[in-house]
Structure formats: C-alpha cells, structure tokens
C-alpha cells in the first residue's frame, strides 16, 4: 500500500470491545445504585408520612405481627431497618393510666386501634366548647337537684309547723268553746235553733271574724275566728279617744289642722282643710261619729310626747286591758299595721263604754261644726247605718274600712236590758258588716227573750 493512503479493515479491534463492556458495566452499576437509593428514600418517606398521619392511642400500640421479628433473625435492607425503628418507637408507647407492651396486644386491641386510626383527628380530640357545655349542664342539674331537695325540706318543715299551729289553735278553740258552753249552761244564756241560729245560718255570716259576748257573765254566745289577727282600720279611733280623754286636757281648747295631719299613708281626702280650727270636743265628736281622719290626727299630735308618744300610750293601754294580740302604729287606723283580734276588741269595747263622752259621741246621728277659714259650717253624719236608721238599742259603736281590713264594726247594744258586745271584722261588701249585725241582733232578741 502506498504511503499516505488510508484503508479501512473489516476487522473490529479487540481492545474496543473491552472499552465498551467497561462503559456498559459502569453505567449499569450507576443505574442500580441510583435506583436503590431512590427506593430507600421513597420507602422512608412513606413510613414518615404514615407515622405523621396516624394517631396511636396511649393504651394501644400500632405494630402489626408481621413487623415483629425474632431476635436472632438477620438484619435486612435499610427499608426493613427503618420499619423496625418505627415499630421500636411505638412498641414502648405507654399510657398515663397503664403501660402496655407490644407483646400483650390482643385482637380486640388491634380492632380498637384500627377503628381509632380510621377516625378523623378532630373527632378524637375533645371539643372545649362541648366540654364546657357538658360541665354547665352537669352543674345546672346538680343545682336543680340541690334546690329541689332544699325546697322539699323547707316545705316539710313549714307543713309540720303549720300542722302544729293548726292543732294548737284547734285545741284552744275547742277549749274556748267548751268553756263557753259550760258558762252558757251555768248562766242559761245561749242562742236557740228555733230562733234561726243553726249551722247553716252561721255560715251566712260574711265577716272573717265574729265575736259575740254577754258583758255581765262574759258568756261567749257565738264566734268565728275570734283569735285571728287582722287589720282593724278606723276602729283604732276608739282607742285614740280613750287615750285622749285619759290625758284630761281642756276640751274647750281649740286645735289647728296642719299639713302634718294630712294622710300620707292612703292619701285620702278630708272635709277639714288645712288651717281649720275646732275645739277638742268637736274633734273628738266627728272622729268617733263620722270617722274624720284629720280630727283624729290632730288629737294624736296634741299630746305631751307628740304623735310617737300618743301611739306608745295607745299600745300601753292595750297591754293594760289584756289585749295581747293588738298593736297600733297611728291613731287614725289608716295603716294596715294597726292589728287586733275580735276577742281583744271586745275588751276595748268594754273599756270604752265607761266613758260617757265616747258613748254619746259615737251614737250621735249628726253634728254641725264651724271650722272657720272661710267656711261657715260643716255638717257630719254617723257612719253606722243602724244608728242613722234610729236604732236606740246601740249604746256604743265604731266603724272602719280600708282595703286590707275590709268593712269592720264594733257595737255594744242592749238586748232586753242586757249589754251584748258584737265585733264584726273583715266583711267583704260595704253593707255586709251591717247585715251580719242585724242577723246576730235577731238571734239575740229571740233567744234572750223572757
């Protein structure tokens, strides 16, 4: 072959084959190494994501029997080592109440762990709002139960006390009735059935409290809740008249009606205007006959100790007369705190009947006074319809009314020459108290006739 001319041979050199095989081996090893590294990384990422997304309860481990290997087994690839590390961490997970080893897990615990793993994470966490509501409901139930128990105990105690009081009152009432029956048998005074006094006719009495007693023998002829403490309204003026006359002031002296005499309890009006001047005689007269409130207020103000001293004298007089259930706070009776019983008021009627002026003024039919101050005269009439109608058997009386007390009247009348005291308190209608007195008067006149 001449120099400079290149020719190609069909033979493949041997050293080229070695170079290509070495290159292919190197690329193959690199590919296998990259694939193994990527697979291990991928498996570790899956294990990490599974551990982050699965909540293991404190009392139950999440390891499966397949991941638990005996101690003598040879170590596997890096993937198995990563899995064993996860199992190793979960195997020693303990509960605050009771530790549990992975070897003690039963099928029941596995099922519970699987069920918990399927639940959402938010469902496994306690809801603070629901917990607060449950606590409030529990507290409310406990409070309601405690309140009900306390109410029941209080009701039982109140019922027991009421029963005891009712029993005592019934016993006292029966004792009084027995004593009255014995006194009636001794004196021969009693209301007769042939005169209309029956159980049915007694039920027709409209007043809340009734007390009828013979003054001479102190025989109780009939009664109805005579020991019940009730407001007495203007019947209080009877005690005010007694205290005013006990002072023995000059009755001809004149008294002025001032602003202090106005009614600040019920805000009632009066025909006596502020600035009027009347004598003590006239003040006492219209206070008893027509129940003039400003006249009684002026009398209570005209006292040595003022109005407080006058009220104290009224209460002291009540205690002296044996009126144990009677109390006064003013002299007019406009306050519902002026209270007494029908039995106590019979003692007041008996005491007031010893004052001639009280008997005369309370049963007078009318009176004309001259208050001055631009008014020539004022005409007053009796507040008791029986007195206005001309019943001369009544020797002493006093009426009264406020909303809390109802219609009240106390009367001393002569029945065939015998003084009988009648006390009627708490009648509902404006004419019921007078109707009760008329019914009792009919019984008395028939039963005590000789």
TrEMBL record:
Region entry Disordered, spans: 49-185
Keyword field: Cell shape, Cell wall biogenesis/degradation, Hydrolase, Membrane, Peptidoglycan synthesis, Signal, Transmembrane, Transmembrane helix
Bias (Low complexity): 128-185
All copies of domain Peptidase S11 D-alanyl-D-alanine carboxypeptidase A N-terminal, residue ranges: 203-428
Pfam family, one: Peptidase_S11
Biased amino acid composition, Basic and acidic residues: 116-127
InterPro entries, A to Z: Beta-lactam/transpept-like (IPR012338), Peptidase_S11 (IPR018044), Peptidase_S11_N (IPR001967)
Domain of life: Bacteria
Transmembrane segments: 12-32
Basic residues bias locations: 82-93
Family: Belongs to the peptidase S11 family.
Protein name: Peptidase S11 D-alanyl-D-alanine carboxypeptidase A N-terminal domain-containing protein
């Amino acid at each position: 072959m001449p120099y400079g001319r290149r020719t190609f041979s069909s033979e493949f050199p041997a050293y080229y084959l070695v170079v290509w095989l070495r290159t292919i081996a190197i690329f193959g090893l690199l590919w296998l190494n990259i694939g193994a590294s990527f697979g291990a990384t991928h498996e570790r990422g899956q294990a990490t994501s599974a551990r982050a997304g699965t909540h293991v309860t404190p009392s139950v481990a999440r390891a499966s029997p397949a991941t638990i290997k005996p101690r003598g087994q040879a170590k596997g690839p890096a993937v198995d080592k990563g899995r064993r590390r996860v199992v190793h961490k979960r195997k020693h997970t303990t509960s605050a109440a009771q530790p549990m080893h992975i070897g003690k897990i039963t099928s029941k615990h596995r099922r519970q762990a699987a069920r918990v793993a399927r639940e959402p994470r938010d469902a496994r966490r306690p809801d603070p709002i629901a917990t607060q509501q449950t606590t409030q409901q529990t507290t409310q139930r406990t409070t309601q139960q405690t309140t009900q128990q306390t109410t029941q105990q209080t009701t039982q105690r109140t019922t027991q006390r009421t029963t005891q009081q009712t029993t005592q009152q019934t016993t006292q009432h029966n004792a009084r009735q027995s004593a009255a029956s014995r006194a009636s048998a001794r004196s021969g005074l009693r209301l007769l059935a042939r005169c209309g006094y029956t159980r049915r006719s007694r039920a027709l009495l409209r007043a809340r409290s009734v007390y009828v007693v013979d003054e001479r023998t102190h025989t109780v002829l009939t009664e109805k809740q005579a020991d019940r403490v009730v407001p007495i309204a203007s019947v209080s003026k009877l005690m005010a008249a007694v205290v005013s006359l006990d002072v023995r002031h000059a009755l001809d002296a004149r008294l002025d009606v001032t602003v202090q005499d106005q009614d600040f309890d019920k805000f009632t009006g009066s025909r006596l205007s502020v600035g009027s001047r009347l004598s003590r005689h006239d003040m006492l007269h219209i206070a008893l006959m027509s129940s003039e409130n400003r006249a009684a207020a002026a009398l209570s103000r005209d006292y040595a100790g003022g109005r407080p001293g006058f009220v104290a004298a009224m209460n002291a007089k009540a205690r002296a007369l044996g009126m144990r259930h009677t109390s006064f706070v003013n002299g007019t009776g406009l306050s519902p705190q002026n209270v007494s019983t029908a039995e106590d008021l019979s003692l007041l009627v008996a005491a007031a009947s010893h004052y001639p002026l009280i008997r005369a003024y309370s049963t007078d039919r009318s009176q004309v006074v001259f208050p001055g101050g631009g008014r020539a005269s004022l005409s007053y009439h009796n507040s008791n319809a029986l007195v206005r109608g001309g019943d001369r058997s009544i020797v002493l009386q006093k009426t009264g009314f406020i909303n809390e007390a109802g219609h009240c009247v106390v009367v001393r009348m002569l029945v065939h020459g015998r003084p009988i005291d009648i006390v009627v308190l708490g009648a509902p209608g404006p004419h019921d108290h007078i109707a009760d007195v008329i019914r009792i008067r009919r019984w008395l006149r028939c039963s005590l006739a000789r």
